[in-house]
Amino acid sequence: MLKLKLFKRFAAITILFGILSMLLGVQIMRQRVISEAQTRVRLGLSSAWALFENRQRELCILLRLLANKDLLLRVCEEQRWNDLELRSRLERIRASFGLDFIGLVDPGGTVVFRATEPYSTGDHKTADLAITKAFNGETVSCVSLFTRAQLMLEGGGLADRAFLELEETPRSRRSPKMEESRGMVMLCAIPVRKGPSVIAVVYGGILLNRNFAMVDGIRDVVFRDDVYKGRQAGTATLFLNDTRIATTVLRENGNRAVGTRVSREVAERVLDNGMAWFGEAFVLKDEYLTAYEPIRDVQDQIIGMLYVGLLKQPFNDIERGIVLKFLYISIFVLLVALVLAFLIAGRLANPIHRLVESSHHMRDGKRPEPVPLSGCCRETDLLTEAFNHMAVALYEREEKLRALNRSYMETLAFVTHELKSPIATMMNYLYLLREQKLGPVTESQMKALRAVDSGGQRLVEMIRHYLNLSRIESGDYTPVRSRVMLQADVMAPLLTSLEAELKANGMCVENTIPATLVLNADLNMVREVYENLLGNAIKYGRPSGRIRLAAQPVNGHVECSVWNDGDGIAPDKLPLLFQKFSRLDNGGAAQRHRGTGLGLFIAQHIVEAHGGWIRVHSSPGDGVTFVFTLPVQRETSVE
Amino acid sequence: MAKILVVDDDRELVESLTVLLEGHGYQVDAAFCGKTGLQRIVSNRPDLILLDVMMAHDSEGFEVVRQLQGESSTHGIPIVLLTGIRRAKKLPFSFEPDADWLPVKAVLDKPVKPELLLKTIDDALASAVSG
Q1: What is the pLDDT of residues A592-620, one digit of tens each?
Q2: Best interface-test mutation with A: which of B86, B87, B102, B118 has the largest number of A CBs within 10 A?
Q3: Is the Cβ pair A420, B111 closer than 8 Å?
């Protein structure tokens, strides 16, 4: 069906493009959602750095103010390092500004003052590049690593605060180290000047290990609003090398995940290669969108990392939501497209459908109805119009031909009808001559008479056949049924009229048709059937052969048969027998007797018009049998 | 010797039938239309009438049959219809001998074989005599 075919193609194309656009759309949306989020994280790291550096700047400002304090200048000038007033003042300032340590170094590199218990002095900071630089007049602000011993000297329990037990972390680099005793400090060193010369260096700093205020502050500023299922989705962490020393990341038990370590990939990229990491990474066991950058000390050595990250799950959820919405819309649009495709296929196919229907109509010989124009497209309308013109033209031509044929058939019928009387006259005289009623006839005259007689028989047969053909062609050769005694009404007169011919051919007829058999059929038609079949049997039968006639009631009809012991007919020719104007050209008898080629055609028409069938059986050596059925008379009362 | 009246508008056919029937031992009278045929029947009283259905008018033969049937004097005369009509015309009935509608002895198709014609006439006369 054209409509279905068109729809299938439309649908295939629509679905193909629909799926392609969906896949593409989903891909683009996913990338957009994640890349937007990743951009936020990257910006978040910049903010984190700004906060970190801000804290360093604050530290510097505070120490610079201290370096210009009269009290400090005086103490340094007079080298009165044990000044109690200075100690108490600086200790108060340190505590109120959140510094973990403050100290003074004399030009010899010896720490001469500390404002943190136990106020130890006398150790050397000559190896500390920051202090050295400060003695050269620079203001130094940096991040630095202090050993446990250094932290102990700085006092205030910093060494203990800094101490971390390391934990095995999935995805991290393997390390035999079990603990981290060093501390990462935010350090500032300021020269104390008297005139052009530096008379001391004041330094101070903040320990970053376990400095949760710092990371919480960063997290709050950068990711304040990112909450997922009641927990903060944003995280910030300070790393000493690959170890978390201060973090907002929590363990499952709710404790901060200090002492855990970063994943191997990040460590390799950031710590080993000094590059930033932006992208997805595992933080403990969750997937995060992350940003890591190295933290460098005053010698530009990488000593740790600053990290911010956002839990990826919320973005997955958003992404899924958007993708689902997009898919719903796409499927809806696809369905609409399919419905449209169906309608369009219908619009395209319908006119063609109607054309096909109309052509079937025409094939059945009915008058063609004009196919209405669909108006769906110009081409089909043109086709429909052309078809309509053609249909009318064809029908008119056919009508003309039919009329012509009808008048031809009528003429044929008229002419053949008019032949009847003259032929009857001829036949009468022929009979009289043959029977020598008009005087004696010589042997050669008799031969000529027989030839004329046989010609006359053929003429009679032709008249009958052509009259019947004209009636069949004009469609009014329909049976008028009556009660027909097959033996008395049909066979007896027929055999009488064929007597001479049978005798001439030396043939004998075995007639076993029961005298009581009564048909409900058209008498003339039944006669016609037998006339044709018997005529054939005589013509094509073996000279001096036999013809057998039989009939018996079978299942509500009468099965009749006409058999002759002729040569038989080739099996491939059998179906041709009943065709109009068919003459079998099998040598022998057929060429001796030229018939009209209509006898069996007419017989078949008659039998079928009575609702029966006619068949022919033939096998070499077994003769030819025609079998046909005719309706039996129901109320067979024996007379 | 039985008398047969042949009624047909084809003179040559009538002539040939006359010769044929006379040769077969019948006395033959002829008429070439229905009207004269009826006169001859009344005047000559034939033993059998051989009648063509389609003469000048399509149904002339039928009318002859009806009229003969109507008159008591001619009622019993056997009639054999000789016709070319029944296959040429589209008659809405089976054109067969019928006691009420077509009270004739036999209907024969033109051109009938002389053998069949003679046998039919013999049979009709025999049954008329016995009946």
Answers
A1: 566 788 889 999 999 999 999 999 988 77
A2: B87
A3: yes
Does residue B23 belong to the interface with chain A, where contact is any CB pair within 8 Å? yes
| Sequence-distant (≥ 6) Cβ neighbours of residue A467 within 8 angstroms | A413, A416, A417, B87, B88
Which residue in B15, B90, B96 is closest to A523 by CB distance? B96
Residue of B nearest to A468 (CA): B87
Residues A404, A406, A408, A414, Cα dihedral to 10°: -150
- Burial status of residue A403 (CB atoms within 10 A of its CB: 0-12, 13-18, 19 or more): exposed
Neighbours of A1 (CB within 10 A): 10
B95 interaction partners in chain A (CB closer than 8 Å): 524
Task: Summarize the confidence of residues A20-38 as an average pLDDT.
Answer: 88
**Residue A124 to residue A135: CA distance in whole angstroms:** 14
Question: Which residues in chain B (55-114) have CB-CB distances under 8 A to chain A?
Answer: 84, 86-88, 90-96, 110-114
Q: Which of A419, A431, A606 would best serve as a mutation to test chain B binding (most B beta carbons within 10 A)?
A: A431
CA-closest candidate to residue A526, choices B124, B118, B94:
B94
Distances (CA, A) of A192 to A99, A121, A507: 19, 18, 159
Q: Which CATH architecture has domain B3-130?
A: 3-Layer(aba) Sandwich (3.40)
SS (H, E, C) A326-356: HHHHHHHHHHHHHHHHHHHHHHHHHHHHHHH
* Contact: A428, B114; criterion CB under 8 Å: yes
pLDDT over 70 percentage in chain A: 97
Task: Tell me the ipTM for this assembly.
Answer: 0.84
Q: Is B75 exposed, middle or buried (0-12, 13-18, 19+ CB in 10 A)?
A: exposed
Q: Please give the Cα distance from B58 to A246 (Å, whole number).
A: 132
Place of tokens 């710590």: A271
Please enumerate in sequence order all residues whose Cβ is within 8 A of that of A333, keeping only pairs 6 or more positions apart, or say none.
A18
Q: Which domains does chain A have, with CATH numbers?
A: 28-329 (3.30.450.220), 372-475 (1.10.287.130), 478-631 (3.30.565.10)
Round to whole Å and give the CA distance between A314 and A291: 17
Contact check, Cβ <8 Å, A496/B23: no
Mutation for testing the B interface, residue in A410, A411, A417, A428 having most B CBs under 10 Å:
A428
Q: Which residues of B touch A431 (CB under 8 A)?
A: 20, 113-115
> Which pLDDT tens digit goes with each residue over A162-197?
999 998 888 888 888 899 999 999 999 999 998 888
pLDDT tens for residues A266-291?
A: 999 999 999 999 988 888 778 899 99
Q: What is the pLDDT of residues A427-471, one digit of tens each?
A: 899 889 988 888 899 999 998 988 888 888 888 888 888 888 888
- Cα gap A589→A608, rounded to integer Å: 28
Give the list of residues 6+ apart from residue A7 with CB closer than 8 angstroms, or none.
A341, A342, A345, A346
CA atoms within 13 A on the CB side of B39: 6
- For residue A425, which residues of chain B lie inside 8 Å, CB to CB? 10, 12-13, 15-16
